[in-house]
Amino acid sequence: MRPDYFFFRLRSASKYLHLVGEDMKRLIAYIVLVAMILNGCAYGTLIHGSKQEVLFNSHPEGAEVSVDGAAIGKTPVKRDLPRGKSALVEFNKTGCERKQVLVFSYNSPIVFANLIPFLFVGFFVGTVIDLVSGGAYYLDPDPVYASLECAEVQQPSQNGSEGTP
After folding, report:
1. DSSP state of 150
2. Domain locations along the chain
C-alpha cells in the first residue's frame, strides 16, 4: 500500500463534508461537549467516595475507642472517617495501658485515572474535585489494631479455712 494512500482517502472524504447538514454538525458539537464534561469526572471521588469505613479492634476486646478526642464506641467497631485527614486514635480500657495509633492519609493512585481521557482540561477539573472532596486519598492502617498491655488481675485465693472438717 502506498504511504500517501491514507492522505488521498482523507482528502477525498473531506470534500463531502459540506454535505453534512446543520443537525449533524450540532450533534457532533454536543458529543464533543459531553466528552469534555465527562472528561472532568473525578474518578477517585466516584470510585471510593470521600469517606472510608475503618475497622477498629483491640486485644483484649471491649476497649473504648476515640478518634481525635471523640468517643466512637467499644472494640470491635467500624466507623466512616474522612479520607483527606489523618487521625489520632486512642484505645483505653480499665486495667490496661492506654494506646494511641496514628491513622495516616496517603495520596491514592486512583487520581491518575483522571489522565485517561484525552483532554487535559478535564484532568485538572477532576483532580481538583478529588483533592477537595478527599477522594484522592486513602487511610492506612485499615483495620486499626491495638494490643493493650493489661495488669493481671489476681483471683482471690482459697485458704482452706472454709468447709474443712
Report:
1. B
2. 18-147
Are 60 and 75 in contact by the 8 Å Cβ rule? The answer is: no
How many Å apart are CA 42 and CA 51, to the nearest integer?
Answer: 15
CA distance 104 to 145: 14
pLDDT, tens digit, 9 for 90 and up, residues 38-89 = 656 677 777 778 899 999 999 999 999 999 999 999 999 999 999 989 999 9
- Cell numbers 473504648 correspond to 64
**Considering only CA atoms, which of 150, 148, 146, 156 is closest in space to residue 57?**
146
SS3 131: helix
- Cβ(125)–Cβ(65) below 8 Å: no
Of 136, 10, 148, nearest to 74 (Cα)?
148
Whether pTM exceeds 0.70: no
